[in-house]
Amino acid sequence: MTLTFNLAATRNEEGIEMMSREERKALRKTMMTQFVEMLHYADVHLVEWTASKCDLAEVLHEVYMAGLITTLDGTPCKYISLAQQAFGLLHTGMPANLYSLTSQARGRNNKRQPTFFVRYCTMMRRQPDSNPFMEHMIKPLDHVPVDRQLLLDFDQSWQ
């Protein structure tokens, strides 16, 4: 009988545990900043979210709790409206029960499926100057949504 162990999961947990509180706080701030930058990018380009909806809900909740996104009058954006915009921009279906999904995402703490922040820390430790959102979490749409396709068809008719 041969036993094999998933050492990658063990290394992930050791990596986050070995970080100081200040390092984790700085990395969490970097994660939220990169996520907001990715949302601005998604507003201009046609991209879709490739990670799980649970991961997206977890990061959205972090951004919401930090108060990074506000309305035009400067008040903090409501979580449900922030989620509707983000899921729409990233061409991902809005979950039926967002708050339940967020609670589930924030409650993940096992080695089989760690929180998104633990996996983000691992990615950033491997490549400190990278942006995991732009490299791993989104991809260009392979199809154009119907409303934009009509505009493209109209533009091409002039040529």
Question: How would you summarize this macromolecular structure in one to three sentences?
Answer:
The chain is mainly α.
Structure overview:
The chain is globular and about 40 Å long. It has helices at 7-17, 21-44, 53-66, 79-89, 98-106, 116-126, 132-137, 146-157, and strands at 47-49, 138-140. 62% of the residues lie in helices and 4% in strands. With 159 residues, it is mainly α. The protein is built from eight helices and two strands. The relative contact order is 0.17.
What is the strand and helix layout of this fold?
Blueprint: H1 7-17, H2 21-44, E1 47-49, H3 53-66, H4 79-89, H5 98-106, H6 116-126, H7 132-137, E2 138-140, H8 146-157
Find the count of extended strands (DSSP E, 2+ residues): 2
Low-confidence stretches: 3-14, 149-159
The biggest beta sheet reads:
2 strands, antiparallel
Q: What amount of the residues lies in strands?
A: under 5%
Strand order of the largest sheet: 1-2
Q: H/E element string?
A: HHEHHHHHEH
Distance, first to last CA = 69 Å
- The helix content, as a percent range, equals 55-70%
Counted by DSSP, the helix tally is 8
Gyration radius from CA atoms, angstroms? 18 Å
Mean pLDDT: 80
Shape: globular
Overall structural class, as computed from helix and strand content, comes to mainly alpha
Descriptive tags:
disordered C terminus, about 160 residues, two-stranded antiparallel sheet, 8 helices, 2 strands
